[in-house]
């Protein structure tokens, strides 16, 4: 009998494969050669050569005629003329060609849809030409970019302010205010040369960034300076272009300025790919940039003011709310903006409190009081709310601007909405009522009760009786239970009905199924009635609709629970910054801005400013954040101070300095110097010479005396040193107990192994010599061999060893390799004979696995490791954000302090800051944000915010420009460093 062999099958397939390759591989030209000829012909515009295909052999055809009787085929049909073929607008080629249309180089935004698409194409076959060949052409589909974009429209306001109720701009001559800028003396020729050299270096850095933006991101929001791409985080209205307009003018780049002013005309503020408009960012960057460029260029470019008005009209629509507080994220599309809206009950303080300077200056330039009215109402609410916060004098980072205080809901019993049922009388008149239409009753049924009202079809409304609730009665017979007839199915329960039943169910008392078929003659009258309308009696039983009641209010806390944050940093900063600046811009005619500023700064000095503990004991100040709990939370102190210094808070030095001069607060000038010096120290402490976004330090108990205490610093870095040691001691105690228990168990197991095992008793059959089971390598044997081996073992166990013949030690090579023995070879023998089998041995017991507690690092080791791994500068306990995104706040205060004090120290400090920033942020097409200022070689983040050109480089440039350029006694700079001319 021939057995199946796997390797023989593989051999047969291999022979067939070799024969096929030999036969068909040399019969024609290879695929590579034919493809090469096709490519060569296409490159030379020649007819492609035909592939050398061999004709397929003829197939034998059926010789017998196939006949089928089809009556319809014999019936004569009139001839019909086919419809004319529409002429083809494009010529039909005789040769198969593919002519795809090249997509547009850049996608075009749809506008409101926010979708960018390339030109789409689809293949289309033309009719067959002469020779039977079809020409394949690609016809472009209509581009989505051709769809008309959605534009913002000026709609009638839901909550307009009458013209007589507008808060008008203050009129009259500005009050005299103290001089802010230092009275500088004439510089020496050497000082001038050094200053101008640095000035040119700063301008060259600006020009490189501007050229990169112009070449790779023109009219887009921002440039990606590493990759040379662009992005639009705002509304896609060219944020960098508008933001840098006044910087171009200040740096005397007049040609670039004129080109940018012309490009502003291409910006359409009535449409954007973004569904919402961020009010704060749009106001300080776009509106502020346009107004400042118009101001500083001598009001010669009227298109800048026109574009500012166009944008302002869009932004003013965000103020159309019941209390005229704006939506900080305005959804501008007409389908949504046409509805009435309220301001949010959780808005960021800076986003609603940093609009005054821009809208006030626009009102002064245009003479439109509505722009000032919009921000003056916000100021009034801030003034009212200032003394009613958890920290009187300051405002929390989040507040409720909705103007709606939710009071207890008053239940209102509303009549149910009665709707006519489908029928033939749906067009009858339905009188309107407060809560919905009701069905008009015929006169002859006027005296009918509510439940006897007629439906449009003329049927009476008969309410369905509510069934009793289903209650399952546990175990026990029910005398009222009657089982259904045998021919009907049982009810919905399973099992013995006597074990439980539905209370009140009677098989004879009603129908076994829902009566929904009106055709049944024996049906209940309810079946012929439409679904009844709920009556007043039924409505009283149903849950009644309740509506919230809104009570008008001003600003309020966004939440009564949890802590609130009070800070000069992010989400609050420019609200406080704009108080003295708005006072200046209004010529000192509105005294409330001074009062609000002084109240808030008194609270800041008392609760937020602290002196950090540093090794060199520098007399510097940081402004932290205070977390104030809810009024209901019991607390002995007003709040918890986080000893933080953030880059965004570094503007405070300049604000305190200006407020000190403006409002005659000389003690604040000393605070301004210490705050500015704190940010300079923060730049000098890192490996790159750049301050991180935010970090924590140790706050001193006193601002006057603060000596370096390394023990206190280490305790702040490692507050769990004692707890870690106690935890290790507890772990070691547990470890010793586990080891003692495991050792006892192990010794007991060893003693049990030393006891000899019981001997085998002789059986009645006779003494059988015990011998070990032969060792077999199972992986080398198949199932059949294992079965044969098992039989052999059983046979050997029954037969005495001395009577069994010595087995032959042999092994079938093919069986070991996975095959089968040849016919007549017999079963395979065990791999190892019985005589050679080793005697079994008992293994030692495994000792239980017990983990040894790891010895914790000492307090000193922990501190040194943490400082090294986190690269902590001395005095810093934690770095919250290690990056730098080209922020301007530190150099802003340095510039203010130089202009206010005239101290050349600030120029030297500013130059060190500039060199460090430019060295570590320089990219191929500009300057980029970096990821970690504590590394000597940080990674570029491929991001260049628009304020790099609008603020940071502008402040560096103004620091070394002549002091008359943008004098603090003539100009007011907004939070984006856009200068507005002060009234005279």
Automatic annotation (TrEMBL):
Residues 530-549 have a biased composition (Low complexity). Signal peptide: none annotated. One of its GO terms (molecular function) is calcium ion binding. The active site is at 281 (proton donor), 573, 693 (proton donor), 889. The keyword Kinase does not apply. Pfam families: Glyco_hydro_47. Residues 476-489 have a biased composition (Pro residues). GO terms for cellular component: endoplasmic reticulum; membrane. Belongs to the glycosyl hydrolase 47 family. This is alpha-1,2-Mannosidase. It comes from Trematosphaeria pertusa. The lineage of its organism: Eukaryota, Fungi, Dikarya, Ascomycota, Pezizomycotina.
């Amino acid at each position: 009998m021939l057995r199946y062999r796997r390797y023989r099958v593989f051999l047969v397939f291999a022979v067939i494969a070799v024969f096929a390759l030999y036969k068909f591989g040399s019969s024609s030209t290879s695929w590579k050669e034919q493809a090469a000829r096709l490519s060569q012909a296409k490159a030379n515009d020649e007819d492609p050569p035909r592939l050398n295909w061999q004709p397929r052999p003829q197939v034998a055809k059926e010789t017998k005629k196939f006949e089928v009787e089809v009556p319809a085929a014999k019936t004569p049909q009139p001839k019909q003329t086919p419809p004319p073929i529409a002429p083809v607008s494009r010529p039909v080629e005789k040769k198969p060609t593919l002519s795809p249309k090249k997509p547009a180089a850049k996608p075009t935004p749809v506008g409101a849809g926010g979708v960018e698409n390339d030109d789409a194409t689809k293949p289309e076959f033309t009719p067959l030409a002469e020779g039977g060949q079809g020409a394949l052409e690609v016809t472009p589909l209509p581009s989505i970019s051709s769809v008309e974009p959605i534009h913002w429209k000026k709609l009638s306001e839901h909550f307009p302010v009458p013209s007589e109720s507008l808060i008008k701009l203050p009129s009259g001559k500005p009050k005299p205010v103290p001089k802010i800028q230092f009275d500088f003396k004439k510089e020496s020729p050497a000082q001038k040369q050094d200053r101008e050299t640095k000035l040119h270096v700063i301008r060259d850095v600006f020009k490189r960034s501007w050229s990169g933006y112009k070449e790779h991101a023109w009219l887009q929001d921002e440039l990606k300076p590493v990759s040379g791409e662009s992005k639009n985080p705002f509304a896609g209205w060219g944020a960098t272009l508008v933001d840098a307009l006044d910087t171009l003018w200040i740096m005397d780049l007049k040609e670039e300025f004129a080109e940018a002013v012309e490009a502003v005309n291409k910006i359409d503020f009535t449409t954007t790919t973004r569904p919402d408009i961020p009010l704060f960012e749009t106001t300080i960057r776009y509106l502020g940039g346009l107004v400042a460029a118009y101001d500083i260029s001598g009001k010669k470019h009227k298109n800048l003011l026109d574009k500012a008005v166009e944008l302002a009209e869009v932004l003013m629509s965000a103020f159309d709310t019941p209390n005229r507080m704006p939506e900080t994220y305005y959804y501008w599309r007409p389908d949504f903006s046409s509805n009435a809206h309220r301001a949010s009950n959780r808005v960021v303080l800076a986003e609603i409190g940093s609009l005054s300077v821009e809208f006030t200056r626009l009102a002064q330039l245009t003479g439109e009081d509505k722009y000032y009215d919009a921000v003056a109402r916000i100021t009034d609410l801030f003034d009212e709310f200032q003394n009613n916060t958890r920290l009187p004098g300051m405002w929390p980072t989040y507040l409720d601007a909705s103007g709606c205080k939710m009071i207890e809901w008053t239940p209102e019993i509303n009549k149910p909405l009665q709707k006519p049922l489908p029928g033939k009388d749906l067009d009858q008149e339905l009188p309107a009522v407060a809560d919905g239409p009701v069905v008009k009753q015929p006169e002859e049924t006027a005296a009918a009760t509510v439940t006897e009202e007629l439906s449009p079809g003329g049927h009476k409304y008969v309410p369905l009786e509510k069934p009793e609730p289903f209650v399952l009665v546990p175990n026990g017979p029910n005398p009222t239970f009657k089982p259904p007839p045998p021919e009907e199915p049982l009810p919905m329960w399973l099992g013995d009905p006597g074990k439980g039943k539905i209370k009140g169910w009677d098989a004879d008392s009603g129908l076994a199924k829902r009566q929904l078929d009106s055709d049944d003659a024996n049906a209940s009258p309810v079946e012929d009635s439409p679904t009844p309308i709920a009556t007043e009696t039924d409505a009283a039983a149903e849950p009644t609709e309740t509506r919230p009641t809104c009570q008008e209010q001003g600003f309020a806390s966004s939440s009564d629970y949890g802590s609130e944050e009070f800070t000069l940093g992010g989400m609050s900063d420019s609200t406080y910054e704009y108080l003295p600046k708005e006072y200046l811009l209004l010529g000192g005619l509105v005294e409330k801005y001074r009062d609000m500023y002084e109240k808030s700064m008194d609270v800041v000095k008392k609760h937020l400013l602290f002196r950090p503990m540093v090794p060199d004991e520098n007399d510097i100040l940081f402004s932290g954040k205070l977390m104030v709990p809810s009024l209901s939370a019991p607390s002995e102190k007003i709040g918890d101070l986080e000893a933080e210094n953030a880059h965004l808070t570094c503007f405070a030095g300049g604000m305190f300095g200006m407020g000190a001069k403006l409002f005659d607060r000389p003690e604040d000038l000393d605070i301004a110097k210490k705050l500015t010096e704190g940010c300079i120290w923060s730049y000098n402490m890192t490996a790159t010479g750049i301050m991180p976004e935010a970090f924590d330090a140790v706050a001193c108990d006193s601002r006057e005396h603060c000596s370096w205490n390394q023990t206190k610093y280490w305790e702040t870095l490692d507050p769990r040193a004692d707890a870690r040691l106690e935890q290790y001691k507890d772990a070691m105690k547990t470890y010793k107990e586990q080891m003692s228990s495991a050792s006892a168990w192990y010794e007991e197991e060893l003693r049990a192994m030393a006891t000899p095992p019981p001997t085998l008793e002789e059986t009645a059959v006779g003494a059988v010599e015990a011998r070990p089971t032969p060792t077999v390598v199972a992986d080398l044997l198949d199932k059949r061999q294992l079965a044969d081996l098992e039989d052999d073992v059983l046979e050997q166990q029954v037969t005495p060893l001395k009577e069994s013949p010595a087995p032959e030690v042999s092994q079938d090579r093919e069986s070991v390799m996975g095959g089968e023995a040849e016919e007549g070879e017999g079963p395979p023998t065990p791999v190892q004979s019985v005589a050679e089998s080793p005697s079994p041995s008992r293994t030692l017991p495994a000792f239980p696995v017990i983990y040894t507690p790891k010895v914790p690092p000492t307090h000193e080791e922990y501190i040194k490791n943490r400082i090294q791994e986190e690269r902590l500068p001395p005095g810093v306990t934690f770095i919250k954000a290690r990056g730098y995104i080209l922020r301007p706040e530190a150099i802003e205060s340095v510039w203010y302090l130089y202009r206010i004090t005239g101290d050349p120290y600030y120029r030297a400090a500013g130059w060190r800051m500039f060199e460090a920033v430019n060295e570590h942020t320089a990219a191929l097409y500009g300057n980029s944000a970096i990821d970690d200022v504590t590394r000597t070689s940080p990674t570029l983040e491929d991001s260049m915010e628009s304020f790099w050109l609008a603020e940071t480089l502008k402040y560096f440039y103004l620091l070394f420009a002549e002091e008359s350029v943008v004098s603090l006694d003539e100009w007011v700079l907004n939070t984006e460093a856009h200068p507005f001319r002060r009234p005279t």
